[in-house]
Amino acid sequence: MRIAIDTLGGDADADVLIDGALDAVAARPDIALNLIGEPESIHRALGGRADSYSHHTVTPSPRRLDITDSLRLTLRGALASSMRTAVESVADRSCDGLVSAGSTGALMALSRHLVGRAQGVDRPAIAKRLPTASGRSVWLLDLGANLKAGPAQLHQFAHMGAALAESVANIATPRVAMLNIGSEFHKGPANIRAAAQLVAEDDAIRDVGYVEAHDLFKGAADVIVAEGFAGNVALKASEGAAQMAAHVLREELRRWTPRESAATHDPDEQARAGLSRVFNAYNPQLYNGASLVGLSRVVVKSHGGTDREGFAQAVRTAIEEVEMNVPERIARCLAGRLA
Amino acid sequence: MRIAIDTLGGDADADVLIDGALDAVAARPDIALNLIGEPESIHRALGGRADSYSHHTVTPSPRRLDITDSLRLTLRGALASSMRTAVESVADRSCDGLVSAGSTGALMALSRHLVGRAQGVDRPAIAKRLPTASGRSVWLLDLGANLKAGPAQLHQFAHMGAALAESVANIATPRVAMLNIGSEFHKGPANIRAAAQLVAEDDAIRDVGYVEAHDLFKGAADVIVAEGFAGNVALKASEGAAQMAAHVLREELRRWTPRESAATHDPDEQARAGLSRVFNAYNPQLYNGASLVGLSRVVVKSHGGTDREGFAQAVRTAIEEVEMNVPERIARCLAGRLA
Question: What is the ipTM of this complex?
Answer without folding.
Answer: 0.87
